[in-house]
């Protein structure tokens, strides 16, 4: 069944994780939401990835990239308003975050009306929205992202049988959110390690901090060469300063490359959009 057809919408009105008015004339749209940054280059990389994903979608499907904060005129409400001005009735939301352990996922879902109450207190208010909302998943342990992580760091590998991949993420101090971070990044590290052919793979978080301990363990206690791979959307303070500064004096390999730019992120977004369409057509 075609998600873009009127019949497809009528047959799926009772399914999906949604909010909004089911009586509107059917027109789907996509809203990609990421954190935002004062760095125009950061915003540009997100825009390029979203545009690349949109290029493989039907021309009739409007796509907006929006940001949680900072980017004036491009906030979530701005994106919703632009899509609804085009008559969008069913909104596919792609949260462009690396972990479901991010508190931002929780507050965005609440603000969009996908959940009645946030798990953690938030300053975000309910957004103005008439469209039905179908909320996607963040990166977590997606196999496409595993390929992407390895592609970013494989040039650092020379003797795979003596090397360990250490995937590094932001993490969280909040109960429940930390466990989601750990589940997602540990599974992603295992996926990446398996396809890499390295001796093994592990993960570390910056919050609570386990990075130096993990690098020290694998390099000094176990005798492996450690390849450190940052799990961050774009380069910035965490990839350029936080990670290297915490490893002063240790031996490790590190390029500092974040996930963007890379064509696989557009491929991941495209897959997320299609997955939601397929789930609605069941």
Automatic annotation (TrEMBL):
The keyword Metal-binding applies. SUPFAM superfamilies: Chelatase (SSF53800). Keywords: Lyase, Metal-binding. The keyword Metal-binding applies. Pfam families: CbiX (PF01903). Signal peptide: none annotated. InterPro entries: CbiX-like (IPR002762), Sirohydro_Cobaltochel/CbiX (IPR050963). Gene3D superfamilies: 3.40.50.1400. Residues 1-21 are annotated as: Disordered. This is Sirohydrochlorin ferrochelatase. GO terms for molecular function: lyase activity; metal ion binding. It comes from the Bacteria.
